């Protein structure tokens, strides 16, 4: 299928200049392939890990794990992006925002991208080895979700749900790294899945027209004019799950006040979503780095105050 974007189209956001342009020319395509200039995704992968450690009361005795999870999030998010770009190279070439990505544009061959993905995964294994055996097993199980994600937009209108299962797996790993699984861990994870459904629906609004032309499925397209209502519902479900998780750990009504800043931030996103322009969608999506931090603080308050 021929690209729907004319060759003379203006440079896409993925081709924007920045600090990567100051790297050696041979390194630049790999840095872009790993999204090293776009850290939002790494934060969104890291925060669930940090929630798990905090809610399981591991910040004091095992706080160094946050550093390992931070490193792991950078590495595994990069590996996931490489794998995603390999599978999506033909689709990416048909969408304005993604057609300049290194694999889609031919700057990096599929073979070299695969080697890069394997190298990153091996580095990620070093992080996994720092965890206790239960957490190691949970972490390795996530590879099935990572491998399957790029195919979801071809077979379901809700690939964002699969992304939620994948990106929030760190909540299970972080919790299992400290203590045994329980209902709080499951509720924390479920809330994360609903949260991702919300923020990634917002993200998908950037590409809704190109996705329709290319035949790419997304929750934004499935919801259509009800996208704002859908995001509000996803965020409400996330807050309900997170409130229950914290209550399970510390059933104190006063502790629930720690969730108010997070609730306010999510409400702010829904209010601003009255404007669904690509620029607003991207800004709201990126603001979820702050939402993740606010939940981390609430989990820390709940666990440390016991």
Q: Spell out the helices and strands N to C.
A: HHHHHHHHHHHHHHHHH
**Hey, roughly how much beta strand do the residues contain?**
under 5%
Helical segment tally?
17
Task: Indicate the radius of gyration in whole angstroms.
Answer: 19 Å
Helices and strands, with pairings:
Elements: H1 28-33, H2 40-55, H3 59-62, H4 64-87, H5 89-92, H6 102-105, H7 110-128, H8 133-155, H9 159-167, H10 169-176, H11 183-204, H12 208-214, H13 219-223, H14 227-249, H15 260-272, H16 278-286, H17 288-304
Helix pairs in contact: 2-4, 2-10, 2-11, 2-17, 4-7, 4-8, 8-9, 8-10, 9-11, 10-11, 11-14, 11-16, 14-15, 14-17, 15-17
Verbal overview:
This protein is mainly α and 306 residues long. The chain has one domain: Tetracycline Repressor, domain 2 (Orthogonal Bundle). Helices cover 70% and strands 0% of the residues. The chain has helices at 28-33, 40-55, 59-62, 64-87, 89-92, 102-105, 110-128, 133-155, 159-167, 169-176, 183-204, 208-214, 219-223, 227-249, 260-272, 278-286, 288-304. Helix 2 (40-55) runs antiparallel to helix 11. The longest helix has 24 residues, at 64-87. It is globular and about 55 Å long. The model is unreliable at 1-16 (pLDDT under 50).
Search tags:
306 residues, mainly alpha, Tetracycline Repressor, domain 2, 70% helix, globular
Concise description?
This protein has 306 residues and is mainly α. The chain has 17 helices and no strands.
């Amino acid at each position: 299928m021929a690209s729907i974007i004319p060759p003379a189209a203006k440079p896409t956001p993925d081709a924007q200049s920045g600090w990567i342009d100051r790297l050696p020319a041979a390194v630049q395509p790999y840095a872009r392939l790993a999204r090293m200039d776009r850290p939002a995704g790494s934060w969104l992968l890291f925060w669930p890990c940090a929630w798990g450690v905090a809610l399981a009361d591991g910040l004091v005795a095992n706080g160094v794990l946050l550093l390992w999870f931070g490193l792991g999030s950078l590495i595994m998010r990069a590996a996931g992006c490489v794998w995603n770009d390999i599978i999506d190279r033909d689709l990416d070439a048909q969408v304005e925002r993604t057609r300049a990505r290194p694999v889609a544009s031919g700057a990096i061959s599929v073979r070299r991208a695969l080697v890069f993905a394997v190298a990153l995964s091996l580095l990620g294994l070093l992080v996994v080895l720092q965890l206790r055996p239960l957490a190691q097993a949970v972490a390795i199980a996530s590879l099935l979700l990572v491998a399957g994600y790029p195919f979801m937009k071809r077979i379901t209108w809700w690939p964002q749900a699969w992304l939620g299962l994948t990106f929030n797996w760190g909540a299970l790993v972080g919790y299992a790294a400290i203590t045994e699984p329980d209902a709080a861990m499951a509720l924390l994870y479920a809330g994360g899945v609903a949260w991702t459904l919300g923020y990634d629906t917002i993200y998908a609004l950037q590409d809704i027209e190109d996705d329709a032309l290319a035949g790419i499925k997304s929750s934004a397209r499935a919801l259509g004019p009800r996208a704002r209502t859908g995001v509000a519902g996803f965020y409400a479900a996330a807050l309900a799950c997170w409130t229950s998780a914290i209550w399970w750990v510390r059933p104190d009504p006063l502790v629930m006040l720690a969730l108010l800043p997070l609730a306010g931030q999510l409400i702010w996103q829904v209010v601003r979503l009255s404007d669904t322009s690509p620029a607003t969608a991207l800004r709201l999506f990126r603001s979820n780095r702050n939402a993740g931090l606010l939940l981390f603080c609430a989990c820390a308050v709940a666990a440390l105050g016991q």
